Automatic annotation (TrEMBL):
It comes from the Bacteria. It comes from Rhodocyclus tenuis (Rhodospirillum tenue). The lineage of its organism: Bacteria, Pseudomonadati, Pseudomonadota, Betaproteobacteria, Rhodocyclales. This is Uncharacterized protein.
Amino acid sequence: MTDTPRFNAFLAEAIPAAWSEFAFFHRKKNPEKEQRAEIARLWREKAVLAESGDSSRGSWIACPSGTPAERLAGHGFLPCAMEAVPADVLLNFVLAMRIGTPAGEPTYRMPSATYWEAKRNPKSHTMVCFKPEFVEYAGMQVLKISATGFKAVRPGFPSKKASAVFSETSPGTYENVGYRIPEAGDVVKEAPIRSARPRLPWTPMRPEGSGPMDSKVGFASWLVGGINASGMASLEAAHIESRPVKELVGRRGMTSHLDKSKLVEAIFSSLASREIHLYDRRTEADNLGAWELFSSAMTKACDGFGLAVTDRGNSPYVETAAQIFVAIDREEAFDEDGAADTKPAAVASFPRPVQCFTGEIVTRPSEDAGSEISPAAVLVMLANSVLKDEVAARRLIMPREWVATDVMGSVADYVFCDGFADGEDKTFAGIQIARDGSIEFLEEPTEGRLYESVIARKLTPVFRRLASDPPRKEFVGAVEILTTPVRALPLFTKKGMSGHFTGVRVVERLGAYYSSGSDNPKSLKVEKSLVLRQVERVGGTFSGDLEMMAGFCVDPTVRLNAATVWPAPYKLLREYFFTKP
């Protein structure tokens, strides 16, 4: 298989000569429901070839050259030169119109997109498809690939809700034939499937014999090749260099990740005793197995670390210095039968912080093997148990290399801020970690008040910003950590993965970082790509922010060999809010 790009970001150039057979029209606002239905009708008549756009920039449509302008003027679409159409819109037109199908896999087409079938379940009559889309970011074209579901309506299951209906207009090609109440045999577009992501892996299980429909990385590579072959645009992988974060942690003898030995050392140096007390607080809502299975599996997993397990079963709490592990019901059980969540009552029965777990922690590696709990899962539970103790004590207990003062600054210079749902209201909280490891939490009723409170202390507030959130332009001096559409892609082979997918890495070109889940990645087990997060100082710049924020992600509180994807103080802040009275 050919080499694949390391990131999903490309430099793109449209080929003007290839677009001479098209006419373009632009509308400053996205079409309303009735207008969109008219666009779909014109698409079925081949008068409109594709539609693309967004709420901020409006809508573009591509039509055959020579289409009369008056035919679309009534819908608010005015003629537009090809040079005025954004590059990401042109690329989405290519996706909707010109890319073929590898090996005859079915496709599902709408006016604005084409979906490629990757997985099919004949029993449930469902299909899981790749949905690609280009967005522009930092002067590059970023290819996003998500999963969307389709479903064939079975006899005896009539629907009373109108849906986008697809029909097979040619072998292997299903086109949107209208929006109506579906009948048996119709194919309808489902909402994105919750379980679709693991069913469409980022890397194939058997790279040597895989095709473009077997993984997201393979599909992306095939898709880019198809666009280049179409002659309508030229895509070249953006030159993005990354390096391990060093300024904060590297100079103190740490690497940019935590390997197993360092993780174990950090956790066990923080325990008051090497004993675990195990309690069962499950109910009828989630009867996943005999308690003896849980207890014996936990005892076996802890033995390898020299940890003693005391089985307390359903007994009342007994005062102890040991860490407390409590088995509770799965959250999904309450969705299934409408029962009330039993976790709050289970936790409330203990006068001190406890670490909860559910039946999913018990696995069977093979049919011949017995049930077991992974030692790595025990380490994660211990780390999170210590973290709960830290929040309760308002002081760090577990060693963190990033707490030490650095010439560039200190974690004490920042307050990490976030908002939390509090019933029907929202509370905004912040956490400051002092140079001696002591912790202080702040609370305010609004985000603006929290910002002002932090600034009054002559500290720097740090906010997370998701892609859908507006920028905080008025919060001058604050740091924003922005989720970007750029991702580091896993590779098909182990060559280069150790540097590309290890620890926390800084991308200076984008002012961003990304953090991986392993210090020794194995390409066949990489389940997802890594999101790049940009670090910005509102109203100015500070060269140390990026290194500092990336360095705060090197922390032993997530999972074995892993870094946090947001600065680790956010995990303490979240724990504080969810455990407070």
